[in-house]
Amino acid sequence: MLLPPTLVPPSPGAIARLVAESRQRSLAQAPPRTAARPRRALSTEDADRRLRCGPLGRHVGLLRELLEPVMRPGRLALAVADPGARVLAVVGDDDACRRAHALGLRPGYDWSEAAVGTNGVGTAAACRAPVRVTGPQHHADLGPEVVSWAAPVRAPGGDVVGVLGLTGPALAERGQELAVLTAAAAAVEARLALEDLPAAGGGDSGGAGPDAVAVAHLRALGRRRAVLAAGGCRVELSARHSEIALLLAWFPAGLSAEHLAGLLERGRRDAVVVRAEMRRLREALAPLGRAARLTPRPYRFERTPTCDAWRVVDLVRTGRLAEAVAAHAGGVLPGSTAPGIESVRHDVARRLRTAVLERHDAGLLLELARCPENHDDAELWDRVAGAYEPGTPGRAEALAELERIDADLRA
């Protein structure tokens, strides 16, 4: 599969042409300037789910790190949107996010040109190129001091899979925002190519040298079937193989056949069955080559893969709780009843929950409660209700959830 050309910022003249063309489209298709405003197109929960399940969700942490030099001094907010310019997440410090929310830049809101006219996210989605839009260039009345920068993110085949947008006051502009944002989008495109392109010739590092071996990465959060990827090749595992791969990644020193059997089935230690599953797992992982090679006695990965569950633990340890909540949503292999998986799932969830409760951040509590694994957690929703003042949307949402849980228990 051919990769799209490397994303680069257009010249100032090219940007001016893109914005002028967008303004012409807006006059023909968008509501009048006085009526143009973003409207909710997705529920917050649906936006969260689309982000987690889509190609950009696992790269939000990388984007924060790459964009921190322009976000922090300028107090800019980052919007992550889908190809239709519907916002899935807004990232930044509290002040930046409050200003973004005041503009209507919220998860679930439609910022397409058809809804809002010329704007950073919507215009980048429409023209498939990086853009910069200043206050009076916006079709909607966002105020004279608002500046937005946006860039599309493309899959290896060239299709736009999302849009990244920075928004903030004109006084915060330093001149490098679009270049840095475009570089961040290009970095995500490179990650997508490495993760999702089919291997051209085996599972090793694809020509990086005879001894180079790609590092495998295991994704098991929020999905019933794990995915192991390395060097541009990915393998979706069966439910049982997902459990085994996660346990071997969690216990890098290895597990005996008997120990692994006990972690997979309660009351059973049938090592013969485990050995048969291990043979089938080796066959399933063959396309990944040396990056996912398994060794016996004890069973372990020759090179331990990175794992999204471990990343959540690392984010908790370093205090990056908002990223940890977003990454964890859904939990470890939800639906698995293997005792070893349940133990890992509870361990990761406990670490995250404890850290969030100790932070005493109402917004963070609410985001944790909204995660699918906490749908019926009355204690957590009660903590959310207590964290918000009466009459606030957060408290209203928490009280409604508590009423639902109580009604379900009485039914």
Write a structural description:
With 411 residues, the protein is of the alpha+beta class. The strands form four sheets. The chain has a five-stranded antiparallel β-sheet, sandwiched between helices. The radius of gyration is 23 Å and the shape is globular. It has 16 helices and 13 strands. It has helices spanning 12-29, 44-53, 60-74, 94-103, 113-116, 120-127, 177-196, 239-250, 257-264, 271-285, 308-317, 321-328, 339-359, 362-370, 378-387, 393-410; strands spanning 39-40, 77-81, 87-91, 109-110, 131-133, 146-154, 160-169, 217-219, 227-230, 233-236, 294-295, 300-301, 306-307.
Distance between the termini: 53 Å
**What is the number of strand segments?**
13
Q: What structural class results from the helix and strand content?
A: alpha+beta
The ordered H/E elements are: HEHHEEHEHHEEEHEEEHHHEEEHHHHHH
Oligomeric composition of the shown chains: single chain
Taking Cα atoms only, what radius of gyration do you get, to the nearest Å? 23 Å
Count helical runs.
16
Whole-number mean pLDDT: 86
- Biggest sheet strand order reads 3-2-7-6-5
Strand content: 5-15%
Shape: globular
Question: Which range best describes the helical content: under 10%, 10-25%, 25-40%, 40-55%, 55-70% or over 70%?
Answer: 40-55%
Low-confidence residue ranges? 197-212
